[in-house]
Specification:
alpha+beta, NE0471 N-terminal domain-like, 434 Repressor (Amino-terminal Domain), three-stranded antiparallel sheet, 7 helices, about 20% strand, disordered N terminus, Cro/C1-type_HTH, Lambda_DNA-bd_dom_sf, NE0471-like_N
Length: about 150
């Protein structure tokens, strides 16, 4: 399979503002802004202390603008993972867990999802397990499939 170039490189974080419900408003150094929920990330990584609103409110830009840190830089998430979460929340899953959540959210089995997006069931299993690189084109196909389904509804 031909690999498609990664859609973005790590962006520097200029500022961060904690919002309710484990969400961050991120201002990037390039001038763009994002609102990113960390709720799924917090649960999937078992970082339950970040469910505490007082602790979450301590979010700040980490060293060199490459992370959002909590607890005096003891706990942090890097800018690449923030971008991955943002892409997933916009409908383009770029991680094996994100792909699985996308499939489950749409009520598809692995075989159904593979058929809908034009890949073999075995390849889909490899994507979800992390055994195969998840290409950007598949993330775009997921976003397109979701948009077409939403438009038809």
């Amino acid at each position: 399979m031909k690999r498609v170039p990664w859609p973005f490189g790590p962006k520097a974080i200029a500022a961060v503002e904690p919002l309710p419900e484990q969400t961050l408003a991120v201002s990037w150094a390039d001038g763009s802004r994002s609102t990113i929920s960390l709720a799924v990330w917090i649960e999937s990584k078992g970082i339950h202390r970040l469910r505490n609103p007082e602790l979450f409110a301590k979010a700040h830009v980490g060293e060199y603008g490459s992370t959002v840190a909590f607890l005096d830089d003891d706990l942090e998430i890097d800018s690449v993972h923030l971008q991955l979460l943002e892409s997933e929340q916009r409908g383009a899953p770029l991680t094996p867990d994100g792909l699985r959540r996308w499939r489950e959210r749409h009520g598809l089995t692995q075989a159904q999802a593979a058929r809908e997006l034009g890949v073999s069931p075995r390849q889909w299993q490899n994507y979800e397990s992390g055994a195969s690189f998840l290409p950007w084109t598949l993330a775009l196909a997921c976003a397109g499939w979701t948009a077409m389904r939403d438009r038809a509804a």
